């Protein structure tokens, strides 16, 4: 009976995790991962929690216990980075982080003795690098991506810097952040323990988190440490020097993280290599262009590209054979790593002809992804998450600002008379303005 109870606890937790727009396909390996991260009691408790932010009072009510006892449990879960907390209008709120970027990564963002990190890393490697279902679902299940690439600012020309938008610059994110956390790179930490150390020996201490996520991870369990803007800029500079790609949350306002990624360890860049030409993350608004008159054909750009988007091809000029880099624009992320490695500046970043649209904030991204994945009803009807009009209005507000086609998809999924009336009202108002 105990074995059945244990299995039910983890199965319920697995089901709850898959209420996220971003889920985690079930497998024996994922079950073992949950067993490492959660005790049976923790699995049972967390499986009952809302997907969206909730208060101490709500958790106590769900668990049928006192607020004092519930707070001890919640604090412990924050210490393990299985929850993160924040304060809104003087009230402490908690939320389950998604699998990624979330509790999967947080477990390896510091050295810890309460879990077997080598065993966990091996499970992660099996789940993400061998079985692949999780990676395919994470990066390819929706048109709207979880992450987006930032351009390497040092390689931008004066012309570029005049036109680059604030949200396209990692330095702007650093400048605007209320809190900045620095942690261990989960990807390289995992790969090291799994027996696949980083091929370019990239630095580990360059994982940046921002805002309440950074504060919570730092205050509870030391999964990150709070740093100054100057130290964050130093982490970016060290990452530029190492030829790493900056990938952050795919939002314009208040991204929760910027990872500094190598092609050999990062799941996103590995997916870009493996499933090319499909893009696992949103690209920058730039693409490298080769100036043939100055290119010496050294091939350093080809070696530097983390996703193999550049190849050296032989051409004939004036009766002589020369090599020139060719950029596969269907694959290229526009990160600028290749340009940073060019010894004489023959690779220049140009604006893409079609600009990439970035979601405004996390709510906007969640709703877009839920519509695309067919799980909008999970956001709307989570029995805890949208129990008040303010939260419901926030979701409707995002839907009402979507293009007509995605509004129609949302309406079809939601099948709500209320939503249909809202959409019809918005259309009528728009027509009257014209």
UniProtKB/TrEMBL annotation:
Keywords: Iron, Iron-sulfur, Metal-binding. It comes from the Bacteria. Residues 286-315, 323-352 form the 4Fe-4S ferredoxin-type domain. Signal peptide: none annotated. InterPro entries: 4Fe4S_Fe-S-bd, 4Fe4S_Fe_S_CS, RLI1. This is 4Fe-4S dicluster domain-containing protein. It comes from Blautia hominis. The lineage of its organism: Bacteria, Bacillati, Bacillota, Clostridia, Lachnospirales.
């Amino acid at each position: 009976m105990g074995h059945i109870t244990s299995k039910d606890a983890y199965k319920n937790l697995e089901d709850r995790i898959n209420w996220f727009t971003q889920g985690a396909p079930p497998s024996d390996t994922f079950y073992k991962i949950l067993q490492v991260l959660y005790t049976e009691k923790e699995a049972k408790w967390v499986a009952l929690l809302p997907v969206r932010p909730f208060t101490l009072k709500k958790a106590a009510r769900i668990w049928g216990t006192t607020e004092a006892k519930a707070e001890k449990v919640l604090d412990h879960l924050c210490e393990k980075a299985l929850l993160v907390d924040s304060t809104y209008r003087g009230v402490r709120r908690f939320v389950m982080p998604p699998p990624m970027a979330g509790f999967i990564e947080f477990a390896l963002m510091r050295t810890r003795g309460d879990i077997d990190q080598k065993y966990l890393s091996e499970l992660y490697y099996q789940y993400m690098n061998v079985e692949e279902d999780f990676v395919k679902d994470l990066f390819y299940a929706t048109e709207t991506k979880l992450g987006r690439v930032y351009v390497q600012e040092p390689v931008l020309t004066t012309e570029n810097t005049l036109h680059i938008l604030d949200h396209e610059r990692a330095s702007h994110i650093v400048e605007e952040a209320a809190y900045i956390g620095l942690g261990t790179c989960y990807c390289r930490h995992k790969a090291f323990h799994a027996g696949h150390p980083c091929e370019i020996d990239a630095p580990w201490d360059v994982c940046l988190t921002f805002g309440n996520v950074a504060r919570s991870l730092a205050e509870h369990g030391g999964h990150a440490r709070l740093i100054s803007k100057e130290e964050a800029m130093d982490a970016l500079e060290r990452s530029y020097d190492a030829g790493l790609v900056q990938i952050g949350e795919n939002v314009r306002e208040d991204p929760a993280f910027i990872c500094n990624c190598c092609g050999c360890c990062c799941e996103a860049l590995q997916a870009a290599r493996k499933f090319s030409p499909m893009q696992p993350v949103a690209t920058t608004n730039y693409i490298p262009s080769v100036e043939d008159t100055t290119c010496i054909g050294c091939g350093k750009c080809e070696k530097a590209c983390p996703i193999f988007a550049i190849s050296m091809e032989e051409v004939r000029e004036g009766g002589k054979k020369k090599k020139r880099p060719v950029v596969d624009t269907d694959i290229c992320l526009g990160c600028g790593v290749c340009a940073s490695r060019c010894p004489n500046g023959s690779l220049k970043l140009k604006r893409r002809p079609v600009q990439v649209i970035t979601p405004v904030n996390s709510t906007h991204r969640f709703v877009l992804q839920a519509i695309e994945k067919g799980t909008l009803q999970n956001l709307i009807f989570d029995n805890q998450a949208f129990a008040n009009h303010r939260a419901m209005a926030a979701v409707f507000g995002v839907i009402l600002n979507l293009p007509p086609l995605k509004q129609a998809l949302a309406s079809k999924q939601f099948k709500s008379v209320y939503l249909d009336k809202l959409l019809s009202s918005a259309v009528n108002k728009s027509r009257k303005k014209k």
